[in-house]
Design brief:
Layout: H1 6-16, E1 21-24, H2 31-39, E2 45-48, H3 52-66, E3 70-74, H4 78-82, H5 84-92, E4 97-103, H6 119-122, E5 127-132, H7 136-153, E6 156-162, H8 163-166, H9 197-209, E7 213-217, H10 225-235, E8 239-241, E9 256-259, H11 266-274, E10 277-281, E11 298-303, E12 317-320, H12 323-330, H13 341-361, H14 370-380, E13 386-389, H15 393-401, E14 409-411, H16 422-432, E15 438-443, H17 444-449, H18 453-459, E16 464-470, H19 475-484, H20 499-505, E17 509-513, H21 516-528, E18 533-538, H22 552-563, H23 569-577
Parallel strand pairs: 1-2, 1-3, 3-4, 4-6, 5-6, 7-8, 7-10, 8-9, 10-11, 11-12, 13-14, 13-15, 15-16, 16-18, 17-18
Helix pairs in contact: 1-2, 1-7, 3-5, 3-16, 11-13, 13-14, 14-15, 14-21, 19-22
Length: 585
């Protein structure tokens, strides 16, 4: 029987840590690892992608949707470098991901050999744990600690191994006298940190004293929705949701005013502008300009990571711990707030907002409005669907027009706000949850970056429905140039792509829709078609994703950009006048 190799030890250790799926692309710098995966293919699945960036996004999406360790694999040099954007996505959104890469032959490193990139140095900033395997006897200790670190610190761990070391027999490696076998464990301890009784009492007193309380519930509150709702009901507090917290409570629940920030709702922004008490649950939403003004509100923050306490707003009472546990401790100390006027004011505003969104989502004019596609898709999405999206104007349409309900799951690139993640996320979700409907609602700019992952969806016959909003422009950048800077748009127009034809070339069933009257029928047919399907929705490129409340300065910048020579200025002005800007008149 052949001796076990260092790569065999690596794969064995991953299996011991519960890893069942690895996303990657073979290469000569990881041939030893690929061979070990081949030998254990009945226990651990290797998913071949078409670009390593897609592998890292899939590992991040897999971690987001399952809570398990996401793992990606890339060869030495360029393969490893390609992982970085997806790994930064995991870092900034706090997801446990392990990246495994190859190095060139151990005795040729730093000699200008082919693909001579020291990836452990390259990955230094993105990683919570980062190590180079020095030999077969070093492998188990390093891989074990990498898995543990990624899960414990909810971040990226990186292990890189020279290609010749991967195939080296374990028995041929000299074990140092201090590296005694059997001292490494695959058991994981969960943190039991909870606030003490005094901290809970102080937080409860602050919340009880408030009159106009807002709950800001982010990604760290996913899974704590019932507790957040119970607390909101007791305090008469509207629940505001940053985008990664969209799934904390159903969008149609009467206690939530939906999203916040540029993608959010007017009632959410008005609630934050007028509150006197703020409870932050599992969020470090980065846009500080949308929080209450400094000194306006007393604040309590719940977060499992003490480093994030007080990061965005001056917090009076910090509560470090898991959202569910802390809310359970806090609830018995909170009094029922008889005055419901603040909540009722927010609810009235939300009814008006939803009427406005319905009006925009049912427009029949041509070219078709992007909101129409999101509105019709929302009516057709099953309650167990998994929804992913990209970064750009597409995120606005998802945030405002697609409701999370039932057992639905949703994610996007939160803090990195990278393009191209939507399709790989969807592929990962379909692999993690076969049988559940998965929809990637993406823009033409983001999809064109990683269209190669359409092939991955076809290769594994994933039940992924891709709805691409085609406006032939980098819409978010275009509107930022105009509304926030007052500059004419420049460099944002995209060469049109026939996504439906490309998708058919990849083996997809595909549809194209241009008429709002046909949108619902086309989407219904696409969702009912088994396997990978793409819908290309051609929409108005001049539809603006304006902020929920337009400030006079933004309107002035918008007018300035038109006057300074923005292409299609007349069409843009007419669209805006008939749609968003008229709200401030």
């Amino acid at each position: 029987m052949a001796s076990k190799t260092a790569a065999d030890v690596l794969v064995d250790t991953l299996i011991e840590w519960g890893v069942d799926t690895i996303f990657g692309l073979p290469g000569d710098g990881i041939n030893g690892i690929i061979e070990s995966l081949r030998k254990r293919k009945d226990e651990i699945r290797f998913v071949q992608v078409r670009h390593e960036e897609g592998a890292a996004f899939m590992a991040c999406g897999y971690a987001k949707f399952t809570g398990k360790l996401g793992v990606c694999l890339a060869t030495s040099g360029p393969g490893g470098i390609h992982l970085l954007n997806g790994l930064y996505d995991a870092k900034l959104d706090g997801q446990p991901v392990l990246a495994i890469t190859g190095l060139q032959f151990h005795d040729l490193i730093q000699t200008h050999t082919q693909q001579d990139v020291e990836l452990d140095k390259v990955f230094q900033d993105v990683s919570v744990y980062n190590a180079r395997v020095m030999g077969p006897a070093h492998t188990r200790n390093v891989v074990e600690l990498a898995c543990r670190s990624a899960l414990a610190y909810r971040g990226v761990a990186h292990v890189t191994m020279p290609v010749d070391t991967q195939s080296q027999p374990v028995k041929a490696d000299y074990r140092s006298k201090r590296n005694i076998a059997g001292h490494v464990s695959d058991r994981m301890a969960e943190s039991a940190h909870i606030p003490n009784a005094n901290q809970i009492a102080e937080a409860a007193a602050l919340l009880n004293e408030g009159k106009r309380t807002v709950i800001l519930a982010g990604r760290g509150a996913l899974g704590a929705g019932d507790h957040v709702i119970a607390l909101a009901e007791r305090l008469g507090a509207p629940i505001v949701k940053p985008l990664l917290g969209k799934g904390v409570v159903p969008d149609e629940h009467p206690l939530t005013t939906g999203g916040t920030g540029l993608l959010g709702t007017r009632p959410s922004q008005e609630a934050l502008e007028s509150c006197d008490t703020l409870l932050i649950v599992g969020s470090s939403y980065p846009y500080v300009e949308f929080y209450p003004q400094p000194g306006q509100a007393k604040a309590v923050q719940i977060d499992i990571d003490p480093q994030r306490i007080g990061l965005r707003y001056d917090v009076d009472v910090p509560l470090v711990g898991d959202s569910v546990r802390v809310l359970e401790l806090l609830m018995p100390h909170l009094a029922y707030r008889e005055d419901r006027s603040f909540l009722e004011e927010a609810q009235a505003g939300m009814r008006e907002w939803r009427e406005l969104m319905h009006e925009r989502g049912t427009r029949t004019d041509m070219p078709m409005k992007p909101q129409v596609v999101a509105h019709e898709l929302n009516k057709l999405m099953p309650s167990n669907a998994i929804l992913t999206t990209d970064s750009g104007t597409i995120t606005t349409w998802v945030a405002r027009h697609i409701d999370i309900r039932g057992d639905m799951m949703f994610s996007c690139s939160g803090n990195l706000a990278t393009m191209a993640c939507g399709l790989p996320y969807a592929n990962a979700a379909a692999i993690a949850y076969p049988g559940r409907p998965v929809v990637a609602f993406v823009g033409d700019g983001g999809l064109s970056m990683l269209m190669s992952e359409l092939i991955t969806a076809k290769k594994y016959d994933l039940d992924v429905k891709v709805v691409v909003i085609k406006n032939n422009t980098l819409g978010q950048i275009k509107w930022e140039q105009m509304v926030f800077l007052g500059n004419p748009e420049y460099g944002c127009e995209l060469e049109p792509v026939d996504f439906a034809t490309i998708a058919r070339g990849c083996g997809f069933v595909s549809f194209t829709v241009t008429d709002p009257a046909e949108c619902a029928t086309t989407l219904r047919q696409a969702l009912a078609t088994p396997g990978p399907v793409l819908v290309e929705a051609v929409v108005d490129p001049h539809e603006p994703p304006m902020p929920p409340k337009i400030k006079p300065g933004q309107a002035a910048k918008f007018g300035e950009s038109l006057a300074r020579g923005t292409p299609n200025a007349t069409k843009i002005a007419l669209t805006a006048a008939s749609d968003t800007v008229r709200e401030i008149i």
